C-alpha cells in the first residue's frame, strides 16, 4: 500500500470519527437539556402549588377563628333568627299540606286534585317564597364572610411571615407536592425576605457542605398575588440535581462505550498499519541485502567453474589449487548466508525446539573465546575473559547458545573502527548466571538501542560501509535467550562502546 493511500485512509477515518464524536456530544447535550428542563418545570409547578396551599390554609384558618370568636356574636344572633324563621316557615308548609286532604276514593285513583282554598298556583307561590328566603340567608352569610375577609385583608400587612405560615406544615406540604410531581430528590429550603435575609432554614438530611452550593436554587414568592411590604420568598435547593441528570442518562452509556471501543479500534488499526508499512520496508531491505549477499559467492563460484572449463586457461597445479580454494571458500560463505536465512524459521515457531543439556558455561565460553581470538588478533585487537561465576552449571542448547555468544562477539568485531578491546565476564547473582560481552566499538544511538532486537532492523553504521547482514543476528540472540528463560539488556554510548549482559537461571534455579 502506498504511503499516500495510507494517509488518505487515516484522514478519512479521523474525520469520520470526529464527526461521530460531535454527533454523540450534541445528542448528549440535547438529552441533558431536556431532562433538566422537565425537572425545572416539575419543581416550579410544585413550588407554585405549595404556596397556593399555604395561602388557602391561612384563609381557612382565619375564617375558622373568626367565625368561632366572640367578635361576631351579632352575626350568630342573626343566624339564630334565621333558624327560627326557617322553623316557622316549615310549620306553615306543614299546615298547608294538612289542608290538602284526600279521600279514600281519591287515594285509589291515579289522578291528584288540588284544592284552591288558599288561592290559585299555591305550589308555585310556596316555591317562590322558599327561594326568596334562601336568597336572604345567602346574602346575610355572604355579608358575614365579606366582613371577615375585609378584616383579614387589613391585618395581613401588620403580620410577620412567621405568624402567617406554619413552617412545620410547610415542610410536609412541600415534601408531598414534590413527590406528587415526580421530584424525589433530597432538598433543603429556606424563607427569605426581599433583601435575602434568611427568616427560616431547613436542611433536612443534607450535609452542610452540600447546602452551601449556590447553583440550582429555585425561588417562588409566598402569597404571589399580594402586594405587601413584607414580601417573603421560598427558596429550594437540590444538591444532587446534577447526579440525577447524569443517572437519567444511563441508557446512553452503551453508545458511549461503543464510541470508546471504536476509538480504540481506530488507534490500534493506525498502529498496525504503520507497523506493517515499516515491516514491509524492512523486508524489502532484507530481500535486497540477501540478494546481494548471495549473488557475490554465486558469481565467484560461477567464474571459477568457467575457468576450469576454459581450454585457454592453463591447468597447472597452482591454478587448480587456487580455483578449488575459491570454490571452497565461496561455497562456505554461501552456506553461512543460507544458514542465517534459515534462522528466520525460528521466529515463526511458538514451541521451543531447543535441546537442553547440562553444561558448564565457563568452559563453553572459554572454548568460544579461544576459537574467536584468532579473528580478533588478526585485526590488531585483544580479547580477555574473566570467568568469575562459581555456579556455572545451566541447562542450555549448546549449538544455539554458542551461536548467541559468537554473534555478539562477531558484532563487536564488525562494528569497531579501531583495534578491538573485547572483554567477556561471568558471575553469579541470586542463583542466576550473568554473562557480559563488552567492546570499545562505535556504540549505538539511544534511539536505536530500543529497536536493535527487532527482526530485520539494522543500525546505521555511519562510515563503515563494509558491514553486511540481514538484521536477524540480534533478533536471533533475543529469541534464544528468551527460550532459555533468560533476559538480555544492552548498555551503549556513541564512540565509547557497547556492553551486552545476558542473564540465565543456573541449574539450581531452573524449573523444568
Number of helices: 15
Task: Classify the helix fraction into a percent range.
Answer: 55-70%
Instruction: Report the principal-axis shape.
Output: rod-shaped
Please tell me the overall pLDDT.
76
Measure the end-to-end span: 46 Å
Gyration radius (Cα, Å) is 54 Å
Order of strands, main sheet, comes to 6-8-9-11-10
**Proportion of residues in extended strands:** 5-15%
Order of helices and strands: HHHHHHEEHEEHHHHEHEEHEEHHEE
Uncertain segments: 70-80, 99-112
Biggest sheet statistics: 5 strands, mixed
Structural class: alpha+beta
Descriptive overview:
- It is a single chain.
- With 512 residues, the protein is of the alpha+beta class.
- It has 3 domains: 1-96 and 122-248, no CATH class; 251-342, Signal transduction histidine kinase, dimerisation/phosphotransfer (DHp) domain (Helix Hairpins, Orthogonal Bundle); 353-505, Histidine kinase-like ATPase, C-terminal domain (Heat Shock Protein 90, 2-Layer Sandwich), CATH 3.30.565.10.
- Helix content is 58%, strand content 13%.
- The strands form 3 sheets. The chain has a 5-stranded mixed β-sheet, with helices on one face.
- α1 (3-68) packs across α4, α9 (253-309) runs antiparallel to α10 (317-342) and α13 (398-414) runs antiparallel to α15 (473-483).
